[in-house]
Model the fold of this input.
Amino acid sequence: MRTISILGSTGSVGRNTLAVVDSFPELLRVGGLAAGGNVELLAGQIERYRPELVSVRSEADAADLRSRFPGLEVVPGIEGTRAVASMPSVDVVIAAIVGAAGIPAVYAALCQGKRLGIANKEVLVAAGDVMTRAAREHGGEILPVDSEHNAVHQAIRCGTHAEVERIILTASGGPFLHRDLDTFNDISIEAALAHPTWRMGNKISIDSATMMNKGLEVIEAHHLFEMPADRIDIAIHPQSIVHSMVEYVDGSIIAQLSTTDMKFPIQYALLYPERVPAPFARLDLARMRSLDFLPVDPHRFPAVELAYAACREGGSMPAVLNAANEIAVERFLAGELPFTAIVEMVRRVLDRHAGRAHPIDSVEDALHWDEWARNEARGVDVAISR
Done:
């Protein structure tokens, strides 16, 4: 029996993780839950899974939960997420808090030698060196939960690290793969949120529309698999059936395929290295008419090259890229700027940081440059992009 904690239990990944727990009650149990402000959904999860420790964003919500569940330990804020992540009884921590907010809790889990199932790519983008070092020094383990890196993790088991020629991350291309470029300034929030194959939260849906998510995944793969950016490629695959591939030095390419269901990579991370029969929908190969692979158009998706450049430069540049993008997406969702200004805003913040990159040697370093980039992005004049 493995005991798990979920950071971000009321989000999409958190809910899917609990669905996996439901499918394997003899193998998995919930020890801790951390959520933001969705107290009603969290209360239902507490009632069903009876965790030992819970965290919420505010003290007011924490007091509310204590009154509803006498005897339950509820800790608010960052200290709460750290506590849920580092519980002595927990074997596996699923990290699904969106953005750089998850950095302190993820670090706490790795410093306690936990297995970390990471669904929050921003943590490794902003502080990858810090997290991988913590895992090595304290006996922790990082397993990717997002479908692309989980696919790479599975495919890379077919050979040694020295035998890997390159990693090929697949991308759906999002909702604007074939849209007329001349109409990009007219893209609405609703259109950008309408992902063709995955149902995700707002932030990651916008990242998919700009393909910034794939750029961030290049940086994440660099840290997860100790691979330089120039050996990590992207192929647009609209069907989202092949989740990623690994090419070996002999020319063989190993691909991982499954239905578009987050429960598959979550189950893999929770139960690794064992493979256990799952009740989830299987891929019907006979119904697949084609598997298409296309190159990334840099004019349609300029965010991708920004991310590659940040990965090559390293240091604080990826943290700045990530933070500036978070603010740009927030401002787009608030109706403050057009779709095309998202990447332009990130570019301007990166330009201001050019030549000033610093090593990220600690959580504090990552959070410092994250905050610097957020402040810069909030001050960017978007009128030029309208």
Observations:
- The chain has a mean pLDDT of 94.
- The radius of gyration is 20 Å.
- The domain at 2-144 is CATH 3.40.50.720 (Rossmann fold).
- The chain has 15 helices and eleven strands.
